[in-house]
Recover the amino acids of this structure.
């Protein structure tokens, strides 16, 4: 019995030692690789970028205001979708003063359809801070940028490097993907630990002479070559050194922790139209999605329940339940980052006028969430 237990103990100890040896060897391998490729990584990357970079308006300027606009608009937004908004915002708000002096509602209206509306609200708040605290001169230093509303480490690093060549490596999804594959970084990318690991690697690789182009280049490279699916490994200039390519583990990187719970909600919108073709809308308030945007009167329910809707309408408009006949019109499914929405539209046509309604033809003057905006485009069919 003693001999068996001792053998088991020795076996476990050997496995533990072997695991640590492998970790040490793996660490040394990555360290040697970093030292090896750091000599020419930036030069090769920037040379690739000079031949392959996309022509984009914010790359043709050092104006920090315009660079900031592009960075905020392109957060969680693809270039093809964000470019028209960037051009529109530059035309409507050509400088920081024009943005700061506008009403938030007007900013939200011009943001309509782009989603993640907190970006637009923070854009407006930051503009006011720059006008009030920086005399309208948009800051270019990381230590000042990081304190503006809506600006985190990525945006502050990007703006400071693009506008004033400050040596600040950027970390976005494209960069995480490229670096994690080259070095087989096993840190979960959506964790706080990962930032330190990836920043340490990038600080070794970044060009000290041209950090702005380096940051643009590494993001473009991740987007165009080291793509999430079907990366173009055969054309990759780093394939000889890429650990994931050589060990055939591309699909395993980057490492993500998929524990995001998506809440399911059902919104019932009550589209109330009176006899004068006026419609009822409300402004959203409170700490919830679509803050300060407009919508129709709404009941949130676990499921479609016509009785609840009738009761709400009777209470809201002080009319008898017997005279309420809301008609179900359509359903939309809309996905947000943390929520799945089922949106039902119920139509109620009244045979009298409402004092607190607006003309249907003026509804496009108000900012609405994207799914409601698409429904609004069909409202003409209800006109009398």
């Amino acid at each position: 019995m003693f001999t068996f237990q001792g053998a088991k103990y020795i076996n476990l100890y050997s496995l533990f030692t072997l695991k640590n040896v492998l970790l040490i060897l793996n660490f040394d391998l990555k360290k040697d690789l970093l030292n090896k490729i750091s000599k020419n990584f930036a030069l090769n990357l920037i040379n690739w970028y000079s031949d392959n970079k996309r022509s984009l308006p914010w790359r043709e300027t050092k104006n920090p205001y315009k660079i900031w606009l592009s960075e905020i608009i392109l957060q969680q937004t693809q270039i093809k979708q964000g470019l028209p908004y960037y051009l529109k915002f530059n035309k409507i708000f050509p400088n920081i003063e024009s943005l700061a002096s506008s009403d938030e509602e007007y900013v939200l209206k011009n943001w309509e359809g782009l989603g993640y509306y907190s970006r637009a609200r923070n854009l407006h708040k930051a503009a006011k801070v720059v006008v009030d605290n920086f005399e309208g001169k948009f800051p270019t230093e990381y230590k000042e940028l990081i304190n503006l509303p809506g600006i985190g480490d990525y945006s502050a690093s990007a703006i400071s490097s693009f506008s004033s060549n400050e040596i600040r490596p950027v970390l976005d999804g494209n960069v995480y993907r490229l670096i994690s594959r080259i070095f087989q970084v096993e840190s979960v990318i959506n964790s706080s630990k990962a930032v330190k690991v990836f920043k340490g690697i990038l600080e070794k690789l970044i060009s000290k002479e041209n950090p702005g182009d380096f940051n643009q280049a590494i993001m473009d490279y991740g987007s165009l070559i080291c793509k999430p699916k079907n990366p173009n490994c055969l054309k990759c200039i780093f394939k000889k050194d890429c650990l994931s390519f050589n060990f055939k583990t591309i699909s395993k990187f980057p490492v993500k922790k998929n524990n995001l719970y998506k809440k399911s909600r059902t919104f019932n919108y009550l589209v109330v139209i009176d006899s004068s073709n006026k419609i009822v809308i409300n402004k959203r308030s409170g700490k919830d999605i679509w803050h300060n945007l407009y919508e129709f009167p709404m009941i949130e329910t676990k499921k479609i329940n016509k009785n609840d809707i009738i009761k709400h309408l009777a209470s809201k408009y002080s009319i008898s339940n017997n005279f309420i006949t809301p008609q179900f019109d359509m359903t939309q499914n809309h996905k947000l980052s943390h929520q799945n929405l089922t949106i039902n539209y119920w139509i109620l046509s009244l045979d009298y006028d409402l004092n607190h309604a607006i003309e249907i033809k003026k509804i496009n003057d108000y900012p609405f969430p994207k799914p409601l905006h698409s429904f609004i485009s069909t409202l003409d069919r209800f006109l009398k």
